[in-house]
Specification:
Length: 443
């Protein structure tokens, strides 16, 4: 069990705030309004009154290093021959929120696959520092160098949706409040799973500026859903210097064919790194804190470079890159990926979390669902670039379900003893025809 749960479990105070995320918003701080009919899918929020921690900015380094290591391993678990985009940050953040609900082999596998190390207090402080640091990347629009520079937007949201008959542990609520600034939405999964799905999708859509509208497909939420953890990320930023207007060009596809596309050109002092059969160029965004790094293999070396890519390589591109005079040509592109995250995570060794008999998520256990396990991990991402900049989004959902530990009680039998005179009827039910009627008074 995570150390944080043990350290923070005492003295948690719960505050309940009504949220109108589904039809019939609750009032008066109750999990379900008194006059609300059953099955409307009301969602409320439980939140600890613990104050969010404000770590030092330098503490974000460990979380960022974990994301980078996970990024490479997860990339290698995906197909190499299709356009793909995913967000290591979104996936990592969603699983970071899950660690304090897990223990045993389940927790160990999550920590290893996500490259978390030990998910103790320092781990959560690092996650907190990274998210707070990213908030500082937002910039207002300005007028610079005879051009208007659009605003830079980088936002994310974290949400946990828990069935309303599973009380969250106070220590878990403390962790969420202290390091992620969130509480737990209580959802009526048992009676209104579809309305809950619509509400979660609506929240994700709002938080990604409608770029991801259907993170949870139909029937992904059922009456046996115990919890859903979501992270939604939105990014929009102009280049530090606008690229040249796109012109018609040609792109050589992996399968040997060619495509007509719009190519953009730029030049200037850019970060440049020459590696083994590839070069990397950094294109900075407005403000200079963020950049898109293009890793460009030699014409016949894509597979080799992709296979050899490591976390250390990504670090070297930044640490060993030098600013050189570069002339760069790149295509406009737009990619939307629905990533098979569950299969990829299992291939990397996260197995017990998906096993209903082996998963250990005690924070979500209850008298109804003792065996709680991950039923699916959903991830979508979009990235689009043009001569002005980049717009991108990502969303992750970790869905946990349960196998009921309570066998349904057999119905109480109705006792009938025909030991005295009785009547009988023989009837045809479809036609209501009474074929025989009689009585027995002395058999």
């Amino acid at each position: 069990m995570s150390n944080v749960r043990g350290q923070l479990g005492l003295g948690s105070v719960l505050a309940m705030v009504g949220l109108g995320l589904l039809s019939g918003a609750c009032s008066g701080g109750d999990a379900k309004a008194a006059d609300e009919p059953a099955g409307t899918g009301v969602v409320s929020e439980l939140r600890s009154e613990a104050v969010r921690v404000t770590p030092e900015a330098s503490e974000a380094k460990a979380a960022a290093q974990s994301e980078q290591a996970f990024a490479v391993s997860f990339l290698h678990a995906l197909d190499a021959d299709v356009n793909t985009a995913f967000s290591p940050h979104s996936l990592s953040t969603a699983f970071a929120m899950l660690t304090d609900a897990a223990e045993g082999q389940t927790l160990a596998e999550v920590e290893r696959v996500l490259a978390f190390g030990k998910s103790d207090e320092a781990f959560h402080r690092s996650q907190d520092a990274l998210q707070l640091g990213l908030q500082a990347r937002n910039r207002e629009a300005v007028q610079a160098d005879n051009r208007k520079v659009d605003a830079q937007i980088l936002t994310e949201s974290n949400d946990i949706w828990l069935r309303d008959d599973v009380p969250p542990t106070p220590s878990y609520l403390d962790t969420l409040a202290r390091y992620y600034g969130v509480g737990v939405h209580q959802a009526d999964f048992p009676n209104s799973p579809e309305q809950a799905r619509v509400a979660i999708n609506s929240k994700v859509s709002d938080d990604t500026h409608s770029l991801i509208t259907e993170l949870l497909p139909q029937r992904s939420i059922t009456a046996d859903t115990v919890a859903v953890l979501t992270n939604a990320l939105y990014f929009k930023a102009p280049w530090a210097a606008a690229l040249g207007a796109p012109v018609a060009g040609q792109f050589n596809n992996l399968d040997g064919s060619t495509s007509e596309t719009q190519m953009m050109r730029t030049g200037g002092q850019l970060r440049y790194y020459a590696g083994e059969r590839f070069v990397a160029v950094g294109l900075p965004y407005y403000g200079g804190d963020l950049e898109m790094q293009l890793i460009v293999p030699e014409a016949d070396a894509y597979d080799a470079v992709r296979s050899a890519l490591t976390s250390e390589t990504l670090s070297q591109i930044v640490s060993d890159g030098t600013f050189e005079q570069v002339r760069l040509t790149l295509p406009q592109f737009k990619v939307k990926s629905v990533v098979p995250a569950t299969d990829a995570l299992k291939s990397l060794g996260m197995l017990s979390a998906f096993d209903e008999s082996a998963a250990e998520f005690p924070a979500f256990a209850s008298s109804v669902y003792e065996n709680v396990y991950i039923t699916d991990v959903l991830h979508q991402a979009t990235v689009a670039i043009d001569e002005k900049g980049t717009e991108a989004s990502a969303a992750t959902a970790i869905i946990l379900g349960g196998k009921s530990s309570v066998d349904p009680e057999p119905p109480t039998p109705k006792v009938v003893v025909a030991d005295h005179p009785f009547l009988f009827v023989i009837r045809d039910n479809p036609t209501s025809s009474i074929l025989f009627i009689g009585q027995i008074v002395a058999p």
